[in-house]
Amino acid sequence: MLQELNKESQLLLYVADELSPRDRADVDALLAADPLFQADLDRLEATIGSFDAGMAELDEMPLPSEASAIRNIGQLMRQRLTEQAVRGADAAPAVQPRMKYPWWAYPAVGAAVVLICFVSWWGNRPDQPLKLPSDGGNRIAVHPGPLPGPTADDGSRLADEIQRNFEASNPTQPAKSVASLDAAENQIAELSRAQTDFSFPDGNE
Amino acid sequence: MTVQAAPQPGKSAVDSDESLMERLRHGDAVAGDVLVKRYYPALVRYLQRLVGKEVAEELLQQTWLSVLDHADKFDPQTGGGGFKAWLFRIATNKANDHWRSRGREKAAYAGLKLVSDEEAPHAGHRVEGTEQEQKLTKAIAQLPELQRQVLMLRYYSDMKFVEIAELLGCPLNTALGRVHKAMIRLKELMAD
Hints:
The structure holds two protein chains of two kinds.
Chain A: H1 7-15, H2 21-33, H3 35-60, H4 66-91, H5 105-124, H6 152-169, H7 173-197
Helix pairs in contact in A: 1-3, 2-3
Chain B: H1 17-25, H2 29-51, H3 53-69, H4 82-106, H5 111-119, H6 131-142, H7 145-157, H8 161-168, H9 172-191
Helix pairs in contact in B: 1-2, 2-3, 2-4, 2-7, 3-4, 6-9, 7-9, 8-9
């Protein structure tokens, strides 16, 4: 520490006996080696001595009205303590009113409200295509794509097969049915033509 | 420099400053009375040397009210010097506040001469003292504020220079330099 201090500071600490033993030994060595440094120390000690003597004389003068001054401060402090106590009482939390329902009812109701809101939201949300996360080879194509099971072609083939089976079991019925169907179609065609050729005698529609 | 210790009558382990502060913190006004009485002479003289007799009483009251207001912040484990250092720090801050507020007024007046005359005790209130004492009082009042502060703090608080530097928030070398300059300046003023 000694190296960081200038000469005056070193001497002040030396006189005040606030140096470490090692630093004090260093200063002692400097004083022994340097008469000018020793003279500075002597001057400083004389200055401090006269200052202390002067201050001691000043402090011999009695303090005016010491007792009343102490009493006044005591009264002020009591007043301030009272104010602090009042403020502390005002700041203390008020006693909480008794709850109408058991304490556990409040969180339970809160949880129920949250659950109802969630279900309501879930039920009303727009339909979203289901997106499954990609997992490499196990990917399942859901949309778009052919569904497993019978397709439209399968249905046609099934209908043809049923028709063939039916015609095989009733060989005369299909010809009769086709003949009557042809006759009906011819009648419808004639009626259509008759309607198309209809017109008013005076040429007005 | 021989330092005058703050009188501490009847101080024991039971009623140490810290234990009294603990009691005061819990609203024990009697503990406050003991502390005020214990530090009154050193503290009021310290303030008198800094700001003059008229203002010292007012600052003393403010200091003790601040002690009450900030009692919760006092921690004897932090910093050096314990309660005494904390008390003198508060008093020093009050003096600094006074100087700052007075500095605004001072701008309207001229020069250090007028200020130092103002600092000197008024004739009507002067307590009897020798010419030498009056000269020293005036010389102290003529010191620059920072030099006067550190010199009086050293004399009245009985704190080590290291603690004083920490209290003032300045390097040790700076605090010691101010003390040394103040001593030289006082010597010159007393020789005039």
